[in-house]
């Protein structure tokens, strides 16, 4: 293990035989507590995820979606629990708009995250489902002090979403809680207790489902009881690409994980990449160019898999990637249209246990609190995942009833030499795919440990195509990027635009057992806890 920490976050990696790494300390502790009660990595991940809906509501909630990659000790499983658009939606409903709304009822698709909790628990968990809710319910009922990072985002959310139906439930007399102020939400505690007791039945077919459907009907929204009742998770075969002796896995479309794989695959077909120096403008330039090519294909081709005109396999075909990689000029930034192959608010967490199981899990309300719609008396903040559709006629991701939107949230997993190696993810809209690229390269090429991977300065291509770099990127590197034809903007020291990474790597301990090393992100409240 490389123990070097070349970046000044002030954090040390955490090593343990059982471990969980999340974006919020109380959630990490909820996961560790499950280990102490005899739970496994899947139980720990779920307890942390459920707790995050309470203690980090600015990034996820009960009314969001979820995805997971699970190494069960023998093989890797993929779970897509994302919900579909209400049947009442149609292209005509949104045809007058140049793009989908950003919030409100017309962004609310079926929330699938709750179903993910149950599906993972049933298939892989060791503890009773109800046991996983213990800490989340306690924090919702008894209260917890709000951290400065979360308070800052909450304040902005009140300004942006305070007018949405029901959002006042997440305020104190119309304002956000201050840093250090105790936040309680008994309605959310009752909802979580109901979900736990009914095995999610209340949320999709019972009392809670009826509350959601009734509130939607009051506001003329499309979401109906039948849409909720018909929701089902999908077990999927992960997609992958190779980079050296690593194989990197993602969930297949409708998610953006394929963009990370395309970018990784492009660099695998670009021998000049490995000749560049770590942290240099030349290396960052090639990473950025690969990501721009990947995004071009993502936004042109990726949608609900049932509606794509090209397959994931075609986009990841080595011959196609080799041809696309040839477009990259090591000496100059370029403009990259989509190719044609032959015929932000999110929480990410990972967990691993002494029996060798590893979990990469992500859930989200999409943009912060999501739609801003909160179902009265429940604490259910509904996501705005419908924003992920487009209104362009004929596009594979054009909005339609019963269809899944192109999705931003993606868990990742790496195998090395055919063995489980790393569970990782990066929160934050379109930062996720490019964060996966950067985490993979920092670990696989530069040999950094998980904490150093998380600490390393990042770059980001935003939704408009503009390039931003963290303030910790060296000045000569910024100037080098400009010389190569980029126009980087240096973000402020308090920027939250570069996501939050959690990483767990398996260690070769040589005693016949299993141990792990984890990193968490200093950009938010990330914490890894071992047991």
Characterise this structure.
The two termini are 20 Å apart. The model has no long low-confidence stretch (mean pLDDT 95). The longest helix has 21 residues. The chain contains 17 helices and 21 strands. It is α+β, with helices and mostly antiparallel strands and 531 residues long. Helices cover 33% and strands 17% of the residues. The strands form five sheets. The protein has a seven-stranded antiparallel sheet. It is globular, with a radius of gyration of 22 Å. Helix 11 crosses helix 12.
Question: First CA to last CA: what distance?
Answer: 20 Å
Strand segment tally: 21
**Count, helices:** 17
The helix content, as a percent range, equals 25-40%
Sheet having the most strands: 7 strands, antiparallel
Overall shape: it is globular
Give me the secondary-structure topology.
Elements: E1 14-16, E2 19-22, H1 25-36, H2 41-55, E3 65-71, E4 76-80, H3 91-94, H4 113-124, H5 134-142, E5 144-145, H6 148-161, E6 182-183, H7 186-198, H8 201-205, H9 207-218, H10 225-229, E7 234-236, E8 239-243, E9 246-250, H11 257-268, H12 281-301, H13 312-315, H14 318-325, E10 346-352, E11 358-364, E12 374-375, E13 380-381, E14 412-416, E15 419-426, H15 431-444, H16 450-455, E16 459-461, E17 467-469, H17 475-483, E18 489-490, E19 501-507, E20 515-519, E21 527-530
Parallel strand pairs: 17-18
Antiparallel strand pairs: 1-20, 2-10, 2-21, 3-4, 3-11, 4-7, 5-6, 8-9, 9-14, 10-11, 12-13, 14-15, 15-19, 16-17, 19-20
Helix pairs in contact: 1-2, 2-4, 2-5, 5-7, 11-12, 11-14, 11-15, 12-17
């Amino acid at each position: 293990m490389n123990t070097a920490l070349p970046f000044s976050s002030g954090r040390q990696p955490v090593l343990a035989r059982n471990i969980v790494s999340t974006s919020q300390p109380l959630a990490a502790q909820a996961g560790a507590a499950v280990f102490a009660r005899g739970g496994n990595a899947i139980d720990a991940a779920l307890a942390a995820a459920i707790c995050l809906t309470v203690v980090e509501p600015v990034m996820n909630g009960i009314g969001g979606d979820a995805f997971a990659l699970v190494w069960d000790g023998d093989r890797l499983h993929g779970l897509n629990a994302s919900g579909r658009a209400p049947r009442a939606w149609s292209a005509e409903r949104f045809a007058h708009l140049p793009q989908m709304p950003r919030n409100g009822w017309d962004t609310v698709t079926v929330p699938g995250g709750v179903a993910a909790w149950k599906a993972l628990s049933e298939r892989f968990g060791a503890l009773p489902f109800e046991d996983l809710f213990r800490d989340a319910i306690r924090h919702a009922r008894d209260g917890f002090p709000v951290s400065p990072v979360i308070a800052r985002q909450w304040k902005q959310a009140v300004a942006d979403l305070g007018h949405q139906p029901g959002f006042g439930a997440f305020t104190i007399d119309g304002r956000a809680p201050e840093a250090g102020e105790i936040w309680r939400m008994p309605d959310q505690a009752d909802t979580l207790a109901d979900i736990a007791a009914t095995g999610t039945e209340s949320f999709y077919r019972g009392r809670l489902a009826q509350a959601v459907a009734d509130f939607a009907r009051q506001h003329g929204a499309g979401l109906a009881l039948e849409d909720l009742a018909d929701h089902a998770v999908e077990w999927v075969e992960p997609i992958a690409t190779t980079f050296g002796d690593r194989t990197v896995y993602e969930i297949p479309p409708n998610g953006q994980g394929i963009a990370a794989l395309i970018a990784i695959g492009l660099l695998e077909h670009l021998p000049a990449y490995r000749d560049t120096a770590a942290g240099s403008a030349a290396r960052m330039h090639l990473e950025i160019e690969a990501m721009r090519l990947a995004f071009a294909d993502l936004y042109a081709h990726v949608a609900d898999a049932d509606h794509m005109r090209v397959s994931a396999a075609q986009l990841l075909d080595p011959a196609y990637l080799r041809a696309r990689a040839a477009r990259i000029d090591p000496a100059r930034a370029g403009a990259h249209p989509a190719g044609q192959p032959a015929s932000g608010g999110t929480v990410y967490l990972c967990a691993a246990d002494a029996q060798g199981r590893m979990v990469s899990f992500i859930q989200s309300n999409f943009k912060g609190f999501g739609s801003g719609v909160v179902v009265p008396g429940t604490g259910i903040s509904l996501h705005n995942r419908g924003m992920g559709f487009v209104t362009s006629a004929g596009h594979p991701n054009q909005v339609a009833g019963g269809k899944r939107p192109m999705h931003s949230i993606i868990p990742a997993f790496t195998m090395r030499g055919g063995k489980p190696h790393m569970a990782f993810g990066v929160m934050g809209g379109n930062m996720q795919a490019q964060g996966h690229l950067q985490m993979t390269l920092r670990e696989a090429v530069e040999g950094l440990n998980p904490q150093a991977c998380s600490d390393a300065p990042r770059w980001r291509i935003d939704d408009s195509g503009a390039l931003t770099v963290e303030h910790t990127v060296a000045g000569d590197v910024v100037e080098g990027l400009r010389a190569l034809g980029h126009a980087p903007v240096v973000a402020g020291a308090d920027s939250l635009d570069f996501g939050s990474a959690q990483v767990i790597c398996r260690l070769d301990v040589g005693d016949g057992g299993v141990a792990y090393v984890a990193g968490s992100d200093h950009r938010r409240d990330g914490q890894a806890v071992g047991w």
